[in-house]
């Protein structure tokens, strides 16, 4: 009886040991898998340089390249709704520009801009009048050892800019950076003046590119924080009635907070002239000026009227 009891105790002990060891092995494997996934994710955001080929190859999922260095990639269904499709049923994307800035934490950062074009069989850009060229934006900051760049945010499709899908340089629009606080920068996309049937306009859109706000909280990066129309005019075919509006901004600096924006607008209505015989129907010149102050709201991450 004693012998049987001893054997049972040994069997139970072996079973218990194997059970504990199996749990530890599973737990260690699970931890190892999680560490591997995290390391892979971290490695995917580290770039040894801002080389054109490396950027396009990694951000646009290993595309093919033409002889000019333009990346050619196959869009999914959703991307076909936003991006122009070229003759080969693919998208053709080029590195446009790289701009640098120092952020709130005095870290070196970069804004990398890509543009996607519509290409025909002869490798020429083309597009209809009001089709803009999609803008892709990647935000990087210098890695801790200052040797590598770490990708912080990437928007494959931020917005569209320009006319004729950027078929000519003059139709592409303009890109720039502006400070709206001490060491707090945003991205400006400027649409050139264009229009049809007597109505023309031009505008600017500003986007947030900082990782944190001025108080160190996480920022809503690549959000649209301010828009304004800097030019607008209307005239008709039969009567040359010109309504002309123009605006410009002034930055009001504040050393302790975000800068304010002063928007100055001028509106002019010229003579109404009959185009058939150039006779003046009505002389009614009106000039109006207005000033609006905008202040930045950290709560809503946008500039709002005072």
Summarize the structure.
It contains three helices and 16 strands. With 306 residues, the protein is an alpha+beta fold. The protein has two domains: 47-172, no CATH class; 173-306, no CATH class.
Describe the structure.
- This protein is α+β, with helices and mostly antiparallel strands and 306 residues long.
- The chain has two domains: 47-172, no CATH class; 173-306, no CATH class.
- Helix content is 19%, strand content 46%.
- It contains three helices and 16 strands.
- It has helices at 2-44, 52-59, 77-82, and strands at 46-47, 64-65, 71-73, 91-102, 108-117, 133-142, 149-161, 174-181, 184-196, 199-208, 224-234, 239-252, 260-274, 280-282, 286-297, 302-305.
- The termini are far apart.
Instruction: State the helicity in percent bands.
Output: 10-25%
Radius of gyration: 29 Å
- Contiguous helical run count: 3
Instruction: Give the total of domains.
Output: 2
* Overall mean confidence score, pLDDT: 83
Q: What is the H/E string? A: HEHEEHEEEEEEEEEEEEE
DSSP strand content: over 45%
Low-confidence regions: 29-38
Structural class: alpha+beta
Report the biggest beta sheet as strand number plus sense, adding barrel if it closes: 9 strands, antiparallel
Number of strands: 16
How far is the N terminus from the C terminus? Answer: 92 Å
Choose one word for the global shape: globular
């Amino acid at each position: 009886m004693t012998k049987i009891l001893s054997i049972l105790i040994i069997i139970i002990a072996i079973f218990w040991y194997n059970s504990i060891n199996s749990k530890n092995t599973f737990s260690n494997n699970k931890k190892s898998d999680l560490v591997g996934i995290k390391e892979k994710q971290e490695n995917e955001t580290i770039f040894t340089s801002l080389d054109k080929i490396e950027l396009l190859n990694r951000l646009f999922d290993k595309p093919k390249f033409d002889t000019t260095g333009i990346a050619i990639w196959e869009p999914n269904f959703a991307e076909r709704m936003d991006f122009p499709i070229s003759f080969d049923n693919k998208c053709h994307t080029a590195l446009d520009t790289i701009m640098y800035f120092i952020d709130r934490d005095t870290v070196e950062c970069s804004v990398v801009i890509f543009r996607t074009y519509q290409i025909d069989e002869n490798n020429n850009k083309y597009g209809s009048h009001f089709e803009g060229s999609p803008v892709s934006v990647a935000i990087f900051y210098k890695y801790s050892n200052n040797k590598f760049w770490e990708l912080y945010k990437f928007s494959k499709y931020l917005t569209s800019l320009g006319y004729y899908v950027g078929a000519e340089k003059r139709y592409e629009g303009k890109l720039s950076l502006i400070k709206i606080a001490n060491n707090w920068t945003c991205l400006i996309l400027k649409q050139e003046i264009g229009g049809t049937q007597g109505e023309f306009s031009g505008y600017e859109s500003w986007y947030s590119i900082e990782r944190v706000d001025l108080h160190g909280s996480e920022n809503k990066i690549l959000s649209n924080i301010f828009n304004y129309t800097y030019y607008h005019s209307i005239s008709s075919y039969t009567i040359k009635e010109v309504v002309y509006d123009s605006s410009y901004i002034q930055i009001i600096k504040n050393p302790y907070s975000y800068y304010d924006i002063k928007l100055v607008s001028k509106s002019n209505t010229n003579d109404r002239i009959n185009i058939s015989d150039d006779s003046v129907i009505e002389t009614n010149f009106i000039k109006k000026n207005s000033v609006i102050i905008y202040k930045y709201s950290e709560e809503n991450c946008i500039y709002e009227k005072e």
